[in-house]
């Protein structure tokens, strides 16, 4: 089979690194990088560290508003898919690159495979939620991280075949465990941090960082934490902090860093006392690393992490964040999201479909 994988941003490089390796043992894969994340910090480092094969095609579409970025992606992707005419198009997660791949495949009648299908925040104000719902309606093979995601797709009567494969990010976390453990001390030293004594924070969701009021509440929350905070800054967040005149305050509230590579970030996550984040992937990785997570959103797609007590949703409420951080970590840690062999099941499901 010839499978065209359409991807374009940081978490998709992580997910694809698990699947591409397996996929290429049995099928031909053509990697199409949309360019949504294109620089060294958000793209190149993941290809290098996680040994993701270089893309066969680069569309170089970045920036601009959501809808115009999607339109520009489709303008380039549609003729490329028409020329390649693969047997299937594979997409990950919930970004513009996901939806562009889905619409491009649907237009040409090419079967669409969606990895991480069925996740829902039930907040249609989030572009990610709209991308997920629309992609799931177009996919002919819906590969889910959990039973709950599969149940959601059945409830929505999604037209495609639904298979629970587990989570491919778990595969990556397990496969890199030893490399991450070996990095421990040197990475902590580099940032001047001590294991278990600092907080790791990330924020980049539009709802938290785009307007001044929310971004200022985020900085306020950071200012009132009682431990050192390391904040690797997503470029979107750095730009907004600068635009809204909040960068100096953020610098006083936290140790700011450039976006980190996967291995460095995973190391700092493992040694953190707790994580504060609005990222989907980081909530899941914190759970796997048994690090308590405080989620800077009012809802999450990864509800199992909340139900087990490892993740607390606080939005941008500083008092709620401090209360969550004061709680002891739960003693039980049930097995969620699979066994590190999700990519194998993705490939098997594609072959059988
Ligand atoms: N990540 C990273 N460096 C960072 C922040 C995050 O490597 O400085 C990784 C993180 O470990 C996870 C992925 O990026 O694998 C999550 O991406 P992001 O938060 O951008 O997207 P989301 O999961 O919210 O869609």
Ordered list of secondary-structure elements with their pairings:
Layout: E1 2-7, H1 10-26, E2 28-33, H2 40-49, E3 57-58, H3 66-84, E4 88-92, H4 96-108, E5 112-117, H5 127-138, E6 141-144, H6 147-155, E7 161-164, H7 168-175, H8 177-191, E8 199-202, H9 206-209, H10 212-223, E9 229-232, H11 235-243, H12 247-253, E10 255-257, H13 262-271, E11 274-277, H14 280-288, E12 293-295, H15 303-307, E13 311-313, H16 318-326, H17 342-352
Parallel strand pairs: 1-2, 1-4, 2-3, 4-5, 5-6, 6-7, 8-9, 8-11, 9-10, 11-12, 12-13
The chain binds uridine-5'-diphosphate.
Give a verbal description of the structure.
This protein is an alpha/beta fold. It has two domains: 2-167 and 338-352, Glycogen Phosphorylase B (Rossmann fold, 3-Layer(aba) Sandwich), CATH 3.40.50; 171-326, Rossmann fold (3-Layer(aba) Sandwich). The protein has helices at residues 10-26, 40-49, 66-84, 96-108, 127-138, 147-155, 168-175, 177-191, 206-209, 212-223, 235-243, 247-253, 262-271, 280-288, 303-307, 318-326, 342-352, and strands spanning 2-7, 28-33, 57-58, 88-92, 112-117, 141-144, 161-164, 199-202, 229-232, 255-257, 274-277, 293-295, 311-313. Strands 3-2-1-4-5-6-7 form a seven-stranded parallel beta sheet, sandwiched between helices. Strands 10-9-8-11-12-13 form a six-stranded parallel beta sheet, with helices on both faces. Strand 1 (2-7), helix 1 (10-26) and strand 2 (28-33) form a beta-alpha-beta unit. Helix 10 packs parallel to helix 12. The model has no long low-confidence stretch (mean pLDDT 96). Uridine-5'-diphosphate is lined by residues 10-11, 14, 202, 232, 259-262, 265-266, 279-282, 285.
């Amino acid at each position: 089979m010839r499978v065209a994988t359409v991807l374009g941003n940081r978490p998709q490089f992580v997910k694809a690194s698990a699947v591409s390796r397996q996929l290429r043992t049995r099928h031909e894969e053509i990697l199409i990088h949309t360019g949504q994340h294109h620089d060294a910090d958000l793209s190149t480092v993941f290809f290098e560290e996680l040994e993701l094969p270089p893309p066969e095609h680069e569309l170089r579409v970045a920036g601009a508003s959501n809808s115009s970025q999607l339109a520009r992606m489709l303008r380039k992707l549609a003729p490329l898919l028409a020329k390649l005419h693969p047997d299937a198009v594979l997409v990950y997660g919930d970004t513009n690159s996901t939806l562009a791949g889905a619409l491009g495949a649907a237009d040409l009648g090419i079967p669409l495979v969606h990895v991480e299908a069925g996740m829902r925040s039930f907040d249609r104000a989030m572009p990610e939620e709209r991308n997920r719902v629309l992609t799931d309606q177009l996919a002919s093979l819906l590969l889910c991280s959990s039973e709950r995601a599969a149940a959601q797709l059945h409830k929505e009567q999604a037209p495609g075949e639904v298979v629970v494969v587990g989570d491919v990010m778990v595969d990556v976390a397990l496969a890199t465990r030893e490399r991450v453990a070996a990095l421990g001390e040197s990475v902590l030293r580099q940032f001047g941090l001590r294991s278990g004594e600092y907080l790791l924070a990330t924020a980049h969701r539009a709802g938290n960082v785009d307007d001044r009021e929310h971004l200022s509440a985020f900085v306020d929350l950071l200012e009132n934490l009682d431990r050192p905070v390391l904040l690797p800054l997503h470029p979107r967040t750095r730009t907004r902090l600068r635009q809204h005149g909040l960068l100096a305050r953020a610098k006083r509230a936290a140790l700011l860093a450039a976006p980190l590579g996967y291995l460095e970030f995973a190391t700092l996550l493992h040694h953190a006392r707790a994580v504060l984040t609005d990222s989907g992937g980081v909530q899941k990785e914190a759970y796997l690393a048994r690090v308590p997570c405080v989620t800077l959103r009012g809802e999450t797609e990864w509800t199992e992490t909340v139900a087990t007590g490892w993740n607390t949703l606080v939005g941008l409420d500083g008092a709620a964040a401090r209360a969550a951080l004061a709680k002891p970590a739960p003693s039980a840690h049930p097995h969620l999201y699979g066994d590190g062999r999700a990519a194998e099941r993705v490939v098997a499901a594609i072959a059988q479909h």
